[in-house]
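Dear support,

Our group has been running a series of protein-ligand predictions, and this particular one with flavin-adenine dinucleotide is the one our PI (initials K.S.) wants archived with full inputs and outputs. We had some confusion internally about which version of the output was final, so please treat the block below as the authoritative record. The input we submitted was:
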Amino acid sequence: MSKKSVAIIGGGVAGIAAALPLADAGFDVTLYEKRPLLGGRASSYIDPHTGERLDECQHGTMRCCVYLADLLEKLGVHDQIDYHDVLAFLDSAGNYSEIKGCGLPAPLHTSLSFLAFKSLGLRDKIGIAYAMIAMLRAGKRPEHHQETIAAWFQRHGQTPRAIQRFWRPILISACNEELERTACAYAFKIFVEGFLCHPRAFHFGVPKVPLGSLYTEPTLAYLEKRGSGAFTRAIVDSVEVEGNRIASITLQNGAVVTADYYVSALQFDLLLKILPASVTEGVSYFENLKKMELSPLAGIHLWFDRPIECPPALALLDRETEWIFNKTKTWSLPQGAGTYLSMVISASHRFAKTPKEELLRIVLADVRAALPTAREANVVRSQVVRWPKGTLVPAPGVDALRPSQRSPLSNLFVAGEWTDTGWPSTMESAARSGYRAAEYVLEAAGAARSLAVAELPVTGLARWLLRR
Ligand SMILES: Cc1cc2nc3c(=O)[nH]c(=O)nc-3n(C[C@H](O)[C@H](O)[C@H](O)COP(=O)(O)OP(=O)(O)OC[C@H]3O[C@@H](n4cnc5c(N)ncnc54)[C@H](O)[C@@H]3O)c2cc1C
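Confirmed final output from the archive:
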């Protein structure tokens, strides 16, 4: 019997996550990616001057991101993620604090470091502890998709300092949106699954290599070994639909491709662009996509002429810049020659129109204020990468808009971090969506099987507190 074929449009994390299990299951998979490297938003560009692979924006993961971990394991590159068991914070007064494990059972496993957290006072900490227990006890309810976490914090007596120096820095990094535009359900997920249920869930994973290298060659090799393949610099221009099925897709170079099944792993606005309007108009599945919004991010890269003291990852409190990543450390670049720092500004709406030079000035001022050894150092190279359409806004009501990975077209399946995964717009969500889309393809082909990955178990006292 001939192999069933699958064409996957988009080689980001979601497209790769759909491709791998289908290739494993014996499908003839072909992945089409517009750019030269795989990984999508979580990828690298090739510097035209040096030929180096540089990440457009630093990406991190956590131990609770088990689907992404499974995907990286399949690709043989999970060991290229360095998981840090210490989260480092520095406030504008120069107070350095760490969140780290202490051997107590969950959810108390970071409690000693939290008690010692210098940027917060006792009243802030008591309020935070109370809110954490309330989150654990909250369970999963429809109203958590209607209220913003900002309103919930108000109702739960959180101090302005607790919000400014604890809740916002963590949530804006994970959800890429302000608390006033983030639904409680997503905030609860981050804290309950990321910080409270398992002592290792909060460990922060940072790639040791460029993102493009994490995803590109390992995916190409994986697919090739299984008789499948991927084309980079391959742009899908349009999708031809006959009745309730996709008949073919057409690439920008004019090639027409047919397959038994199709997986779109594009962002939702791009999916709407390649589908005929006659297919999408008036169909709630597609109409809902038009109501979803995207939130911007900015990645600022600075190369200094000398060594700079900085942990691998440092969260800045009270500043415009949220994170400093020391790429010289995380990528193990030659020490002594200089230092490469990569900064992130999440939910960067306020800088949408700020000129590049001004943004560089703001970020450099933050870096120099935070890191004494950067004050005398000269910037020898810089790069600003802005993503106006960075990630899905996790606003109240968005959950009802996020679509299933099974589309109304019988042979089209949809992956993408914005589809219905319950997760904020992250690589983890993308990986989950890809596995789910692959499950639907397997089911459609009469070869149904589960691709579920075991979640981290709920341990310790969290088991008693968690209301399911
Ligand atoms: C600046 C930034 C920082 C982030 N930081 C983090 C982080 O620290 N941790 C985290 O977990 N998540 C982070 N995210 C979110 C994460 O990157 C995304 O949620 C995830 O990578 C989305 O994956 P995806 O495969 O669903 O979509 P995408 O990555 O967008 O993949 C879609 C792919 O389709 C390709 N494509 C588009 N049009 C076509 C076409 N016509 N034909 C063929 N191919 C096409 C694109 O080039 C792309 O490769 C960040 C996002 C941004 C923008």
